[in-house]
Amino acid sequence: MILNPFHSLCFAIGITFNAAVSKLPAMAVTNPSGNVQDAASKGEVPERYIHKESDRGARNAPTMAAPVIDIALLSSSSKSGPELEELRHVLQSWGCFQIKLKIFINVCDVLISYKSWNDKEVIDEYTTNVKLISEKIFKAMARSLDLDESSFLKQYGEQIKLGARFNFYPRCRNPDLVLGVKPHADGSAITILLQDKEVEGLQFMKDNEWFNASIVPDALLVNVGDQVEVKEETLVYSKITVKHVCKQSGDLIVDHKALDDLELIHQVVSRLALKHNNRYLKSPSAGEGPLNDLRLALSTWGCFQATNHSISSSFLEKLRKISEQFFSLPIEEKMRYGREVDGMEGYGNDLTFSNQQTLDWSDRLYFVTSPEDERRLDLWPLNPPSFREDLHEYTVKIMEIIETVLIAMARSLNVEPNSFTDQVGERPTLFTRFNFYPPCSTPHLVLGLKEHSDGSAITILLLDKQVEGLQLRKDDQWYRVPVPAIADSLLLVIGEQAEVMSNGIFKSSVHRAVTNSERQRISVVCFCCPEKDIEIKPVEGLIDEKRPRLFRSVKNYLETYFQNYQEGQRTVDGLRI
Predict the structure, then answer these.
(1) Residue 170: helix, strand or coil by DSSP?
(2) Which is higher by pLDDT, 29 or 451?
(3) Pick from 294, 264, 305, 266: nearest CA to 462
(4) What's the Cα-to-Cα distance from 385 to each of 319, 391, 393, 397, rounded to whole Å?
(5) Phi and psi of 512, rounded to 5°?
(6) Which domains are delineated in the chain?
(7) What pLDDT does residue 298 have?
(8) What is the mean predicted confidence (pLDDT) over 288-298?
(9) Confidence band (pLDDT; 50, 70, 90) for 264?
(10) Kind of pairing between the strands at 241-244 and 303-307
(11) Which intervals hold domain Fe2OG dioxygenase (predicted)?
């Protein structure tokens, strides 16, 4: 939303899939700059609100050509007709449309007036009507794709979740510098907006150009969100990027919690039960909820939090403790296990490929822990005394979790359960890295770990219980990963090789580690990499006319990965066809 000298209002409702919403804990973030209305009344624009020029874009954008759909004509059960063709076309090209309806115009007029926002009866009536409209839209979207009209509704369950948001955009003295809402795509399934009747502000990006959303009397604007785009039946639908330019206006938005407004990442996370493999192998219909959660998490964030994975919280705490004990040893003792000049394993820090290389603010203890016959036990510390035994036990349990997750990943995509395990091989390599991030006096200048995505198939992280540091990037925005709220939780991250295998459906998570000026931080990371002689390629069942093959085949992925990592490049990007 862009800003201007006039205020505006809007009201929006977002419709979300039950499984996705139920797994996102509510999080409150305090705005250090205070109330926007207060700042506007003082004529102030705090620096925190000033966006980069690349995000602001042009204010004088052309008007979008998304048509107006007559909702009454979508009520038929027919799979053909000009209105359905129009719906399919507009969702492929714009990802949004306006709908004309006369069933509750008076309610909309009341909602947009200032004095009636607390009228519970009006909001209840509006919500009821929005649910009815949403059901019609979902059925029409399915029919426009030649699917059974209940295809989308079945994925909601019996109770669709609605979240409503009233937006007030006060006047702004610097509309060329400030946005009402930053560029984003909605995390809902669909979002329905009741716009201000007089003041424009909403813009949509299409083909890297911003377009104004025009005001249509007695119409609602419907926008398709990420949750619909990610369903495999709807790959033809286009995801649209939205911003509000700063004009004093208001609108009402119905969607789920606004991810873009949070500084903390939501606990990313389908809490996938991993205790027994057969939980996912009973029948094709078993575990649909967790599998849907898994697919959604890996296709949007590229990671998820796992609990109930058979590793006790007491053992994980023991692993954290021996990590801290090792890094607390005198440097002379730690150097007994020092990394060889051209080697990967042992104690040390960055491999150096050039004098211009920017180094990470971290020390590491790095091993091959599986297969057992490839271990360099001479580099495994004898102090703490239980280190070797504990690391062996952890490795065995991690390999069991990885097998379970790979099978679940395949099942979530409706391909053969062994589709990913076959490419990983019978003897995958598990690298385990103990990370130590000491305090840094200039945390604003130094990174503990530079921006990258992992070269593995799957990465499993045991995070520090008290100190944050890991950050994930999504839609060009960095999100902090909070310390684990659940003591025995592990963070599972998709690596580049799994992105190739999934033909780009699963996203390898781009992440980094920031530094802390006061406290040290420790983490334990396991990287599962396929056998180097096995050819990695997209699973055949994930290639079709709608989703052609995206990546070339590759062997020995890690051969080029580490140098690309130090140079800030992603190996997976070089494999794109």
Answers:
(1) coil
(2) 451
(3) 305
(4) 12, 11, 14, 20
(5) -155, 170
(6) 8-15+57-261 (2.60.120.330), 272-575 (2.60.120.330)
(7) 94
(8) 85
(9) very low
(10) unpaired
(11) 160-304, 428-530
Question: How is residue 507 written in tokens?
Answer: 């996203």
Structure tokens at 283: 């029948």
pTM: 0.55
E-only strand ranges, 260-408: 272-273, 303-307, 346-348, 363-370
Residues 6+ apart with CB under 8 A from 175: 2, 3, 4, 5, 59, 245, 246, 247
**pLDDT, average across residues 549-572:** 85
Q: Are 455 and 563 in contact (CB under 8 A)?
A: no
SS3 string, 221-237, reads: EEEECHHHHHCHHHCCC
Helix (H) / strand (E) element for 315: namely helix 313-327
Distance of CA 466 to the CA centre of its chain: 23
At 427-437, the pLDDT tens digits run 999 999 999 99
Helix (H, G, I), strand (E, B) or coil at 257: coil
State the CB neighbour count (10 A cutoff) for residue 425.
Answer: 14
Amino acid at 401: I
- Quick one: which H or E segment has residue 108? helix 105-112
Look at residue 130 in the predicted model and tell me its pLDDT. Answer: 78
What six digits make up the tokens of 512? 């980094």
**Which residue type occupies 322?**
I
Size (the chain), residues? 577
